[in-house]
Design goal:
single chain; mainly alpha; two-stranded antiparallel sheet; 55% helix; 10% strand; DCST1_C; ligase activity; DC_STAMP-like
Length: 245
């Protein structure tokens, strides 16, 4: 209604507008908390990937530099020659001649069966592993917009409750509008009683820095514009936008 609209800048920051595509300040707090909860599984995923890469590298080095091949070769020839034509010679040739033998042995073996056979993960496998985390982060971002549907669903099933909620919000904004100036005066006065910070002391020592710094409205925090007004009190120097002034 015209008694409220247009809303002031300090009031806009406390209300969520469902039709806005951009995320608003009350929604950013919940989204940041949800994203902070995604940090532990992300760190665990990175730790697992690093350990996997380190183990794969170590096993690959062992496989490359621990390979050993053995070659064994042996041969022998045993031959007994008995000469003569006597009965004893013929007897010895028939008995001892059976012992004549020869053998050639060649054996080659290696420890390849005992070495590890590591297999590194491919890019596709890394992408599939990382995909749930990406979906989790996207859901945290989309959760902001799905929360806006709660009011629409509740208004569809409980129209009377929705009407009472709208009236409550309207009356609440009216009460805040009545006490807006008083609350802002208290807040600015409380801020003025606080000890000056390093930035304020630097501005006092070097007034030329004020031209370089981008100041904002003391009430709503809106960036500086050509229509801003400055408090005429020499000890104050606070800047206000045109609407708040």
């Amino acid at each position: 209604k015209r008694t409220l609209l247009p809303l002031r800048r300090a009031e806009v920051s406390n209300i969520i507008f469902p039709c806005r595509l951009a995320m608003q300040s009350p929604e950013l707090k919940n989204m940041v908390l949800e994203l902070l909860e995604c940090i532990p599984p992300t760190l665990l995923f990175l730790l697992v990937c690093i350990l996997d890469h380190v183990l794969f590298t170590m096993l690959s080095i062992i496989q490359q530099h621990s390979y050993t091949q053995y070659s064994f070769y042996s041969s022998y020839h045993f031959s007994v020659n008995v000469t003569g034509k006597s009965l004893m010679a013929r007897l010895l040739r028939s008995t001892i001649g059976a012992l004549n033998a020869s053998s050639d042995t060649q054996l080659e073996t290696s420890n390849i069966a005992c070495l590890p056979q590591p297999r590194g993960m491919t890019r596709e496998q890394y992408v599939r592993t990382c995909l749930p985390l990406v979906v989790l982060v996207l859901l945290c971002l989309l959760q902001v917009y799905t929360y806006r549907l709660r009011r629409v669903i509740a208004a569809f099933y409980f129209p009377k409750r929705e009407k009472s909620r709208v009236l409550y919000l309207y009356n609440k904004l009216l009460q805040q509008r009545k006490s807006f100036i008083h609350r802002q005066q208290k807040r600015i006065a409380q801020r003025g009683r606080q000890p000056p910070g390093m930035g304020t002391l630097l501005l006092r020592w070097c007034p030329r820095l004020r031209r370089c710094l981008r100041r904002s409205c003391t009430v709503c925090g809106e960036p500086r514009s050509p229509r801003d007004r400055v408090c005429p009190s020499p000890s104050c120097g606070a800047s206000f936008c045109r609407q708040c002034w």
